[in-house]
Amino acid sequence: MTARIIDGKAIAADLRARVAGEVARVKRDHGLLPGLAVVLVGNDPASEVYVRSKHREMQAAGMASFEHKLPADVSQDELLALIGKLNRDPAVHGILVQLPLPKALHAETIINAIDPAKDVDGLHPNNAGRLAGGFTALAPCTPLGCIILSKTVHASLEGMNAIVIGRSNLVGRPLLQLLLNENATVTIAHSRSRDLPRLCAQADLVYAAVGRPEIVRGDWIRPGATVIDVGINRLPAEGGKMRLVGDVAFKEVAEVAGAITPVPGGVGQMTVACLLVNTLRAACAIAGLPKPAV
Ligand code: GUN
Asked: Per the confidence metrics, is the pTM higher than 0.90?
């Protein structure tokens, strides 16, 4: 069997176009210009790449994008003061503090200072708790993207066996909640789980989000399963270059799975597209408008 490749690039482009259409509508009908503020502390090269792409896609969708670059030695108080200012700024509907933060800063305190209505990362305890309770919430972008990709293969995830490998606040835990909201049967596995291959063998849907290159092997996968690879690992390649690989051994798994996301070109593109969705939704909610059509 050779798996169908889930084209994250095309699916994300379609989503961005639908967001742009809704942005044009709320601008025209309500004079609302959704705006996102991204805060980047220090100069981690991977974070700089992500932040640039967020800025570019926001502008392409017709939204306002504000970048705040702070030095790596910025104090906790200075960063909290900036967040307070963004919380009060009516042109800002979404606030994203790029992670990871330098060790001297206390990430939890910083995230808790973000107005939950502007928390487009879905990391504030109010949003995480609301999501866990099955209530309307801003949910983290990468897991939202994973659900959208899964639904391009299966119209409904109801009753399916899903395994999420990884329990981070940014991906694994919120993905568990989103899958439960879709009425899937969910197993969450992590570094201490026993016999991962056996757990995976039960799954119709496999989500790999551990950050370990190619850990998920072909003989772990139930024939025909859908495999969503959230990993982005940079490995050294020939000529001093870097090579991107996921958490899934792509070639092996593609022989067995029914559908699979590639790396790059899978989940990665969806994260930024879902950030646009969350910013638009936050802007409409803050302005007291109905939920947009995306
Ligand atoms: N770093 C890597 N992915 C993300 C993300 O989705 N949000 C934030 N804030 N930081 C990240």
From this structure: yes
